[in-house]
Amino acid sequence: MTQFRGKFINGLDKKGRCSVPASFRARLAGDGLVLRRSVSPDHCYIEAWPMAQFDAASRDANPLNPLSPEQNAEDYAYVVDVAEVTPDPEGRIILPRDLIEYAGLSDGVAFLGRLNWFELWEPAAAERRIEEARRALAARAAASAA
């Protein structure tokens, strides 16, 4: 199984190009990426899913069974509003302008491994999120020790 681990900060040029970290590229093994807005209501970042994994997780639609309102909403949010990109031979991808603006990216991108997928964050926002997570875990540990 492909797993993405670690944190890497790479540059973002004016054309929206950035290099996918080498260890992430190795795990992609030539597969493309599906990019979408984060599902988090509290944080704006880009989710990057290996195309094969994204495709394998998709639901089979039966034209004889209408989709529920929830399934329709999921399709519009998570399937229709995506971008597909493939790293070039140097490992660069071009991020769509709307995703750059959504994530608040300017001249750098923080790549955060999340095992089956990875995230692209504005670097300072990524650091704040990591610190939030550390504090939450410390508070949980302190509460369970009490």
UniProtKB/TrEMBL annotation:
Stretches assigned to the SpoVT-AbrB domain: 7-53, 82-125
Keyword Transcription regulation attributed: yes
GO biological process, one term: cell division
Pfam families in alphabetical order: MraZ (PF02381)
Keywords assigned by UniProt, alphabetized: Cell cycle, Cell division, Cytoplasm, DNA-binding, Repeat, Transcription, Transcription regulation
Cellular localization per UniProt: Cytoplasm, Nucleoid
Gene3D superfamilies reported in the protein's UniProt record: Transcriptional regulator MraZ domain
Similarity comment text for this entry: Belongs to the MraZ family.
Subunit description: Forms oligomers.
Protein's name in the database: Transcriptional regulator MraZ
Organism whose genome encodes this protein: Sediminicoccus rosea
Lineage of producing organism: Bacteria, Pseudomonadati, Pseudomonadota, Alphaproteobacteria, Acetobacterales
